[in-house]
Amino acid sequence: MTGLVALSSGSAAETATLEHPRFRHLLDAVVYTGPGADTAALDGAAAVWVPEGTPRRRLRALAPALDAVLARGGTVLLFGDQQAGWPAGVEWTYRPAGGAGETVVPPGSAWAGTEVGAAAGRLHHHGVLTPPDGAEVLLAAPDDAPVVHLDRVSTPGALLVSTVDPLAHFGHTGSAEAGDYLDVLLPWVTEHLLTSGARR
Fold first, then answer.
1. Is the pTM of this model over 0.70?
2. What's the chain's Rg over C-alpha atoms?
3. Positive or negative, the Cα torsion across 18, 19, 24, 28?
4. Distances 79 to 36, 54, 82, 108, 187 between C-alpha atoms, Å
5. Could you tell me the end-to-end alpha-carbon distance of the chain, in angstroms, rounded to an integer?
6. Which end of the chain is more exposed for a tag (fewer CB within 10 A), N or C?
7. What is the pLDDT of residues 115-167, one digit of tens each?
8. What's the distance, CA 11 to chain centroid?
């Protein structure tokens, strides 16, 4: 299996982020999602990064390939608004962008006391999630509504769902906070999440 593969619709923000030297070396491949997309790189990927802003039709078209990643115990990272109907079990409620620095890392979560949790807490979010029973909340709004959760119960794999959108902010504005978050998130995915196995 390869490691982390990122999807790209070819937007300026995605290209600026995914091809940036800070992050490109952490990716095994970048797969274009447009017409005629070759998803063969997903067949052996240990993890697939679905960036915020992925066009909904393209995400729906990729759903079988992403389902296959999860079915064989792989990991999918899903960012941004979750309104494309995939996966069916993701429940997302829009909120006006939450203020940076107002989210909290729940005690005992995998991000508690980590650089990832600290960096995530400096970003704003665009909504809250209703995780399935048994999913782990990694980041929450001030009212404890989940903003990032890790679902290792709904499929044989692991699905990290986030309404925090670091790629867009780094790609559009070069946000230092978003860059710092990706700097620690991507190694955490490959060094901890993937090596821990889909199920505990």
1. yes
2. 15
3. positive
4. 23, 9, 8, 23, 17
5. 20
6. C
7. 999 999 999 888 899 999 999 999 999 999 999 999 999 999 999 999 999 99
8. 17
